[in-house]
């Protein structure tokens, strides 16, 4: 009789419930439920519908009963930085904003009145991104201070969903580091920094690590889903879970967690809070076992996802790759990290405007636009690989592309070419695999992270790309 574990992996564009178990020493995954996700535009705001998302979590859990595959434990991961504030009756205060909302404009200047940018980086090791929670909370303080006055609890989104499942409030470490309010030395909230910023320190709960148990399902949830199980913390920042599933084949490697965002970096034992890292816009996010994910956030496949939607989803991503390959000689490039690509009304027009303003050829066809996106991403990956090797003083044996973007063969080859390094692509469901790894290690089915990674490497196909010029298949 197999022992099942449930990973609820919610990304910014979709969510999925994946059951996992070990079979002959290999990890077997089964997607049992999937749902669409996205920010809602309401009154000029970009918001998350937490009620709908939790209803989808419960709907997916019901499938376990229907399939007669009851998990021993489950865990929820999501994207980073977004949160809820709860009042004394555990009700959400105000709106649940999405990170692409523009309310944080100018909030960096407000934060730097308290602590200059360089000092803030030295203190937290987290790169400046205007959607970081530190700036979101400053927007609350400046625009709706009464919400902070009423707040009793601060929870990141996966922590909130797991509270709804169990009735217990637990804050998880890896996702908390993305707030820019955690000390890389103590691995806990920097309460002095929080006080300096004027945020109520008592709303922040002690941080727990992946593998800790949150609790069992409430009676109400048990009645809805038809079973009980333990809710265990995974590395609830989806990238932290994905990096856990990096199937290291030889030596040390760089990684790209490729999805809506591309997170490119290395694992480190200590945070690098140097001026060089800050100027290069690198970050030191928390990882499993208190490792640091020393990485750069790159805009990622959000750009091609948007272009596809603007083509009314007439083409698959594989077709867009083929069309981009056919237009591979189109010369224009964009800075994929430019803020104009964060949340444009129309991504295709934003790319065209950027090319026009920078004196480059303006892409017209879907193939030309896709070529600009893919080649610009690859160029950024290549430059970032060089920066990472310079900053760490190490030469790496390859780049491991994990997550949904690992399926983009054309982009993988472009990346190998741009970086001049071997690329290993897979698994595609890295985040879910990492989520399950934390649960299986907690349960004793996998011994430790190193053994779990070997298990992943032997369980899923990994494609190998060597640096060369991409040739269109005949």
Distance between the termini: 47 Å
User: Sheet bearing the most strands, described?
Assistant: 7 strands, mixed
Proportion of residues in β-strands = 15-25%
Number of contiguous helices: 18
Main β-sheet, spatial strand arrangement: 15-16-14-13-17-18-19
Unreliably modeled segments? none
Mean pLDDT: 96
Cα shape: globular
CA-atom Rg in angstroms: 22 Å
Structural class: alpha/beta
Number of strands: 19
Note down, in words, how this protein is organized.
Helix 2 crosses helix 4, helix 13 packs across helix 15 (366-392) and helix 15 (366-392) packs across helix 16. The longest helix is centred in the last third of the chain and has 27 residues, at 366-392. The protein is 39% helix and 20% strand. A hairpin with a 2-residue loop joins strand 2 (14-23) and strand 3. The protein is an alpha/beta fold and 474 residues long. It starts with a strand and ends in a 9-residue tail after the last strand. It has helices at 50-67, 107-114, 117-124, 133-143, 145-150, 157-166, 173-176, 191-197, 219-225, 238-244, 275-279, 302-310, 317-326, 347-357, 366-392, 409-419, 430-443, 449-459, and strands at 4-10, 14-23, 26-36, 40-42, 45-47, 71-77, 83-86, 153-156, 171-172, 207-208, 213-216, 230-232, 254-258, 262-268, 283-286, 292-298, 399-402, 423-425, 463-465. It is built from 18 helices and 19 strands. The protein has a 7-stranded mixed sheet with strand order 15-16-14-13-17-18-19, with helices on both faces. It has a 6-stranded mixed sheet with strand order 3-2-1-6-12-11. Strands 4-5 form a two-stranded antiparallel ribbon.
């Amino acid at each position: 009789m197999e022992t099942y574990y449930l990973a609820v992996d919610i990304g910014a564009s979709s969510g999925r419930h994946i059951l996992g178990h070990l079979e002959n020493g290999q990890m077997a995954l089964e997607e049992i439920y999937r749902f669409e996700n996205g920010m809602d535009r309401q009154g000029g705001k970009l918001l998350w519908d937490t009620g709908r998302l939790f209803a989808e979590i419960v709907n997916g859990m019901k499938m376990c009963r229907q399939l007669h595959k009851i998990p021993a434990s489950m865990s929820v991961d999501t994207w980073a930085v977004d949160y809820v504030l709860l009042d004394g009756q555990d009700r959400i205060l105000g709106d649940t904003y999405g990170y692409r909302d523009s309310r944080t404009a100018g909030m960096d200047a407000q934060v730097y009145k308290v602590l200059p940018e360089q000092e803030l980086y030295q203190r937290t090791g987290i790169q400046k991104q205007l959607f970081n929670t530190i700036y979101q909370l400053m927007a609350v303080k400046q625009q709706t201070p009464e919400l902070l006055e009423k707040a009793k609890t601060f929870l990141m989104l996966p922590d909130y969903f797991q509270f709804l499942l169990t009735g217990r409030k637990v804050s998880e470490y890896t996702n908390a580091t993305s707030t820019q309010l955690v000390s890389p030395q103590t691995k806990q909230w920097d309460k002095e920094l929080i006080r300096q910023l004027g945020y109520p320190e008592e709303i922040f709960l002690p941080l727990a690590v992946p593998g800790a148990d949150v609790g069992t399902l409430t009676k109400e949830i048990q009645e809805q889903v038809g079973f009980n199980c333990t809710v265990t913390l995974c590395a609830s920042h989806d990238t932290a879970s994905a990096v856990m599933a990096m199937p290291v084949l030889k030596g040390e490697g760089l990684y790209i967690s490729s999805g809506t965002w591309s997170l490119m970096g290395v694992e480190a034992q200590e945070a690098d809070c140097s001026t060089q890292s800050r100027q290069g816009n690198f970050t030191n996010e928390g990882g499993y076992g208190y490792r640091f994910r020393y990485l750069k956030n790159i805009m990622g496949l959000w750009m091609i996802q948007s272009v596809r939607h603007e083509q009314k989803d007439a083409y698959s991503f594989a077709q867009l790759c083929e069309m981009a390959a056919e237009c591979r000689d189109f010369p224009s490039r964009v800075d994929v990290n430019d803020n104009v690509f964060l949340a444009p009304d129309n991504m295709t027009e934003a790319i065209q405007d950027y090319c026009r303003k920078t004196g480059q050829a303006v892409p017209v066809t879907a193939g030309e636009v896709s070529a600009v996106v893919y080649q610009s991403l690859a160029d950024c990956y290549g430059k970032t690989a060089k920066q990472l090797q310079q900053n760490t003083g190490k030469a790496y044996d390859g780049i491991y592309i994990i997550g949904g973007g690992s399926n983009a063969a054309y982009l993988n080859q472009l990346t190998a070419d741009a970086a001049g390094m071997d690329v290993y692509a897979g698994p595609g469901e890295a985040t879910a695999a990492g989520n399950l790894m934390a649960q299986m290690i907690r349960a004793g089915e996998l011994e430790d992270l190193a053994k779990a990674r070997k298990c992943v490497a032997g369980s899923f196909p990994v494609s190998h790309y060597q640096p060369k010029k991409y040739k269109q298949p005949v």
